[in-house]
Amino acid sequence: MPAKQPFSAKEILKNTEGNAVSLEQAKNSGSILIDVRSAEEFERGAIDGAINIPLFDGYEKSIIGTLYKHAGHQEAIDKGFEFAERKFPDLIENFRPFLDKSLAIYCAKGGMRSRSIVNLLTGLGVRASQLEGGYHQYRRDTLDFIENFDAKLIVLHGLTGTGKTRIIERLDHAIDLEAMARHRSSLFGGINMQPRNQRQFEAALVTHLASLDQPPFFIEGESNKIGRVFLPQSLAKAMKNGVMIKITAPLATRVKRIVEDYPITSKQVRIQMHNTLLTLQKWLGKDKVETLCGHLRHNRLEELAEILLTDYYDKRYGNMYKRYVFTREISSENLDEAAAELAEFRRQLV
Question: Which of 55, 84, 104, 107 is catalytic?
Answer without folding.
Answer: 107
